[in-house]
Amino acid sequence: MRQGAFYEMQAQLILCQAGLQIVATNFIATGIGEIDIIATPSQQSLLIFVEVRSRKKSQFGTAADSISPTKQGRIYRTAEYFLQQHPEYAEYECRFDVLLFDVMADGVVHEWLVAAF
């Protein structure tokens, strides 16, 4: 299993433990982008688009540093495409979260950034 897939599975566990239901994983809009996880809390009209990032701690920065404005734009456009393809969510509010996994010599630290962008 590739490292990205491992952390995406870990992120799904974290989201489910927080009471969210997974709507989709690895949603691809060809030529636009991909969203790692789409989730919703039960009893709420909220759709959460989750980007999962992992990075070994280095001089190049943390996992959070790897989410550029260009990447954010791709996620927004992919979310718009998802909503076009799934009209049942048209009235839902949307939120963009990031689940970060910083891999360090002594272990992994995760952080959930709610409404990250």
Automatic annotation (TrEMBL):
InterPro entries: Restrct_endonuc-II-like (IPR011335), tRNA_endonuc-like_dom_sf (IPR011856), UPF0102_YraN-like (IPR003509). GO terms for molecular function: endonuclease activity; nucleic acid binding. Gene3D superfamilies: 3.40.1350.10. Keywords: Endonuclease, Hydrolase, Nuclease. The keyword Hydrolase applies. It comes from the Bacteria. Belongs to the UPF0102 family. This is UPF0102 protein SAMN02745664_11614. It comes from Moraxella cuniculi DSM 21768.
